[in-house]
Amino acid sequence: MSQPEAFGRYRVIRRLGSGSFATVWLAQDDLLNYPVAIKVLAENWAHQMDIQHRFLEEARILRQTDSTWLVAVHDVDVLPDGRPYMVMTYADQGSVTDLIRRGQLPLDEALRLLTEIGQGITVLHNHGTIHRDIKPSNVLLQSSPVGQRVLVADLGFAKAIDEASGFTAAAGTPGYMSPEQSIPGGDLDVRSDVYSLGAVAYELITGRPPSRPPVKVPPGRIRPGLPRALDELILSALSVDRESRPADAKTFTDRVRAIRTEPDLPKADPWWQRYQMPWRRTVTLAASLLLVAAGATASTGAPGMALTTVRDASQNILVNVPSVWAREFHTDLAAGPAAAGAGAGPGLLVATDADDWHSTEVPSYGVYATVMPGSRRLSGVSGADPCGGSPEERELHTPTWEGTVWDWPECNGGGAFTSAAVHQPGVPTTVYMEIRQPAYRPDVVNDIIGGTRLV
């Protein structure tokens, strides 16, 4: 859909985003001198009455609940082509997904956000509604006179609790929806939302979404020093057996609030946890690596994210890595299944957790790179299938590098995975790279590859 000039009296400024069913625009209410977000049903659904009904039902629920913790609907109207649109609160600080991408949150801040998200879901449950699609990107953030304000949004899959025994289609987002939601016709209740709250809590605390159910790794294994009660609460919310979960969003939220108010709650991670580097690797690190520039800023798609430039002297390669990933270093990590068959050998790894680099259950985020003699396309990488699906293959041509990139935007519920085989124009040396990130960001991949140098 091309950018319209206005929706009624609302002057359109720019597009904020789009999904399968709708596009959201930033607009200005010139009469009241106030910014608003306008959600418009997508053109391909214009004549689907069931989709139009779902769209308008979302507006009705938000209008009727009228809560501090939910996006507000100010107006609803219909375009000349019959598509409905709703005028909503504009969240000027993006979403919780954007916040997580900037780096690990202080524990108190993560628990504050989780408490406010839980309060929004509690309002819905009290209204007799199940959200069914709770995830970080559906939790928006707005500036307010008293600080940042949480707004639960996108009720496109929401349903009345008294209709939950006969849903005919699976709904939700893999990685965040409860196991019972994946079964069409399954019997759902508010504990499906509790599972999703547990998944959001896991990501807020650790910076990464949980694995596919059953989730066995507590957040405290990824982020040491967490209260035991928090580990137990999140794992109980993520239980496959819903009888083992907290009874509803209010119960879950009350427990989060109680943990947050404990006097011995860690206020900040100790420096040795924030910049963790196992001492057993320091000799190898000193001999083989040189941190050329720790803290040089560059664009990685998240404002202000710093890049750390790392050198592997044994392979004569410099690699730029987002500093929030640069917690552990290896210079002799064996190649994973995606490259070993093509002849890639041991290489440099900079990651959040080197021991879990090849794990599908507890993925870490970072960059692996190895130098291989000769110009190789490594076409077998795509067939190695490290993520349970076919990759998106693209050719890379820049003044510095050319080659092939294979992207898996969703890798076993643990973020995104990218393989790349690139070489400098006219230079018969191939650099093979693997990049794991919490969410699919091709711009981050391009920045990492673009900052890589042979020295």
TrEMBL record:
SUPFAM superfamilies: Protein kinase-like (PK-like)
Molecular function terms, GO-annotated: protein serine/threonine kinase activity
InterPro entries noted in UniProt: Kinase-like_dom_sf (IPR011009), Prot_kinase_dom (IPR000719), Protein_kinase_ATP_BS (IPR017441)
Residue intervals of the Protein kinase domain: 10-265
Entries under PROSITE patterns matching the protein: PROTEIN_KINASE_ATP, PROTEIN_KINASE_DOM
Keyword annotations from UniProtKB, A to Z: ATP-binding, Kinase, Nucleotide-binding, Serine/threonine-protein kinase, Transferase
Binding site for ATP: 39
Pfam families listed in its UniProt record: Pkinase (PF00069)
EC number: 2.7.11.1
PANTHER family in the record: MITOGEN-ACTIVATED PROTEIN KINASE KINASE KINASE 20-RELATED, SERINE_THREONINE-PROTEIN KINASE NEKL-3
Name of the molecule in the record: non-specific serine/threonine protein kinase
